[in-house]
Amino acid sequence: MSLAGVNTFSVICYNVAGLPALLSSGNPEVTTVDMGKRISDWDIANVQEDFNYHTYLYKENKQKYRTATSGGVPFGSGLNTLSSLPFSPLGIERVKWSECSNDESADCMTPKGFTLQPIHLADGAIIDVYNLHADAGISDNDQKARASNLKQLGEYISENSPGNAVIVMGDTNTRYTRELDTILEFTQNYNFTDGWIEYVRKGDFPKKGAEAIKCE
């Protein structure tokens, strides 16, 4: 079942927290199966931290097209794409970040980065779907590494998806309000539309240095 209407498609982004059980606060063998079932209703799903419970995530998932795992911790990036729409025969491209920081999180422990998976929407219509997991933490080094991540991704998109329709989804670990975070520059420099800014905040970008916006 798709959540999208006629001539539309639905997407979801989900950090599935698939770290080994010793590093997890939950019961991943149970919760990961449920996550896989729940994301089946979307046409395209990008997941992050799909590490050591990948088989559980796919066990009861219904999407027909799914990328193969790149491995658990510390070998894989944890990035995968699942889709009810067909993948391009070009396959998935996996790219590791050129910079990372271990200041507040073990970001250099795995080959975090981004992926590109072209997807066929209809005859002659292909969209380039990018999935990312940026550096975490809020130290200066973490934020500088994250800025480098977004710059690397933006340059890759410019070089590899010129003129193509593009969707970027992932765990950016960013806030518009942080002084050194560059999600605003990434969005504007590469002419992206942020769905949250567009439809929830009616085009109003949060100001750098302002108080963090909390969910209510």
TrEMBL record:
Q: Which GO terms describe its molecular function?
A: phosphatase activity; sphingomyelin phosphodiesterase activity
- The organism of origin for this protein: Phytophthora megakarya
* Residues covered by the Inositol polyphosphate-related phosphatase domain: 40-203
**InterPro entries in the cross-refs:** Endo/exonu/phosph_ase_sf, IPPc, Sph/SMPD2-like
- GO biological process: one example: phosphatidylinositol dephosphorylation
What name does the UniProt record give this protein?
A: Inositol polyphosphate-related phosphatase domain-containing protein
GO annotations of cellular component type = cytoplasm
Please name the PANTHER family in this protein's record: SPHINGOMYELINASE DDB_G0288017 (PTHR16320:SF1), SPHINGOMYELINASE FAMILY MEMBER (PTHR16320)
State the source organism's domain of life. Eukaryota
* Pfam families reported in the protein's UniProt record: Exo_endo_phos2
